[in-house]
Amino acid sequence: MALFDFLRAKKNTANIAKERLRIIVAQERSSRGGPDYLPMLRRELLEVIRKYVSVDIDAVKVDLAKDGDHDVLDISVSLPDKPGAAATG
After folding, report:
1. Which residues constitute the domain of residue 75?
2. Which of 15, 55, 59, 85 is close enough to 78 for a disulfide, judged by CB 3.0 to 4.6 Å?
3. Which family does it belong to (predicted)?
């Protein structure tokens, strides 16, 4: 019976991979439907933040979420533990 357990495990792995792929595809589809100004907004926010704190390019995340009938702009900035000097250029 161990042979059947082995084959069944692969099926479960395939189902897990299939479900993960569905999630990725759903996320890609939802991000395409977002406004085209979000990437530009993210870049400009990063430029302003870098005037005061040295942060990585991935530190700023800008997302658009639905809250009932309203769109909500969700901005998340990951600041470093020790704020450094203002970034140059």
Report:
1. 35-80
2. 59
3. Belongs to the MinE family.
Together in a domain, 12 and 41: no
E strand or H helix at 6: helix 2-32
Alpha helix positions (H), 35-89: 38-50
If we measure between CA atoms, which residue out of 1, 24, 20 comes closest to residue 9?
A: 1
What are the start-end ranges of the E strands in 4-87? 60-67, 70-77
Q: What's the burial of 62, exposed, middle or buried (CB within 10 Å: 0-12/13-18/19+)? A: buried
Q: Is the pTM of this model over 0.70?
A: no
What is the separation of C-alpha 53 from the centre of its chain, rounded to a whole number of angstroms? Answer: 22
Tens digits of residue pLDDT in 31-51: 666 677 778 888 899 999 889
Same domain for 71 and 42 = yes
